Amino acid sequence: MPHSIDESESESQDPKEASGNQKRVEIPSEFFKLISEDKDKNCRLFKCLFEGCIVKKKHDGSPKYLSVCNNSRSNAKRHYLNFIIVHILPLNVVEKPGFKMLVSSLAPQLELRDRKFFTELLEKKFYERQAQLKAALRNSTDAATTLDAWTCRRRSYLGETIQWFDQKTLKGRNACLGCRRITGRHTYDVLAKLIESIHDEFQIKDKLRRMTTDNGSKIKKCFRENGAKSTLPKFEAQMNDVREEIQQFSDDEEELKLEFITPIEEQFLKEYVIVMKPVSKCLDILQADKNVGMGFLLPTISFLKIKLKSLKENASIIHCQPLITTKRFLLLIRFEAMFDDNELILAAISNPKFKLAWLDNKEDVRCAKVLLTCEYKRLRGALEESDSMALFDAKFRWSLDLEEKLIMFGMDYPCIFYPKLTEYRNAEVKGNAFLKIAKSVGCEPSETKLKWAKLKDKFVRERNAYNKPSGSSLFEY
Hints:
Blueprint: H1 7-12, H2 15-22, E1 32-38, E2 43-48, E3 56-57, E4 63-64, E5 66-69, H3 72-86, H4 97-106, H5 115-138, E6 143-152, E7 155-165, E8 172-182, H6 188-202, E9 208-212, H7 217-226, H8 253-256, H9 263-286, H10 297-312, H11 321-335, H12 342-349, H13 362-379, H14 385-396, H15 400-410, H16 427-441, H17 445-466
Parallel strand pairs: 6-9
Antiparallel strand pairs: 1-2, 2-5, 3-4, 6-7, 7-8
Helix pairs in contact: 6-7, 9-10, 10-11, 13-14, 15-16, 15-17, 16-17
């Protein structure tokens, strides 16, 4: 912006004040209206006069006007630092002759500082932003993180980001917790200590609900070995990047020594694109940086399962049927247990984008409503957490111990699983059996019957998969 220098004022005032006024930024009055001047902060507040320009609001509701420092040097050093940070430049760039020539030609009245000044300023700003992030996380109640490790130029690093909701605005926020150098061997215990050191620094041990990462063997072992006795959540990766499976072809057949593809291969490629399209869309949704949360997981996987089922029944898909079967089987193994997770279900049904639309049957809708109602009453203080959990534990809290107990008691009543018995078709006998089993397990008979049917179906599917002849594809279902 242009700068004005009033020579008459500079002669009558103190030399220091005159030099300060020489750096005063001139704001065009036809575009901005002066609201007030803060002498303590040595700045002025302006309001934009352009049509359609919306004035931002502060937390207390008051308007947030444009703040311009009277000393242009104050503005310059901030922009210099932003320039270095945004483009990840070395700090000695401010001492380069070309940079000095550029700045002196654009604003000859400015005095450039050396590298030492910007190093101290960078450290000061870093600790200020770190303190602001810690204060924001201190006011939050729940958070989730993403984690990744990589190697570049024979040096390994670990980075972690965090996502949480602002308690006042209820808007999603995210920040980078750190990018740390990994020294020594990359074993699971080294990774665990490094992750926990980041959690200790920002005091987020009790706030973490989920952690998303990839399927690296060392990362998975880090959660498997240390998850139960550390601050690491018992939840790791979602899915790998399936795009790596997409084959790339070149038109230069002589260089790659490829023959022309056959009609069958061409048909396979077309089917492959059709099958992998919904998978790719779901990956884009779940791996997005913004406007996505844990509530997107179950509805997105449900959509993918429905889409793959429709492709399975599509008669035009011939060559990629084994691929569809494999994808459905892997989704069942990897994500089936998550559909019984209370926190994931609450995150999905409380999301206005999905609500209850992603649930398949009326029984799931009913149980989801009970879950949401109990959680609401618990948060309002009408029910204790233990009382509210008891109302829907039978549907959504089936642990491995309860499943084993259900199977153990169920084996004492062959009428519920052995079709050759005459009692197998007697609804009254089977009802009494489920009533006794439910009493032994400690849940409702209807939920016991539903869980038994799911376990039975899962057993049949896995048994069929193991009994398939060698060389055949996975089981059809």
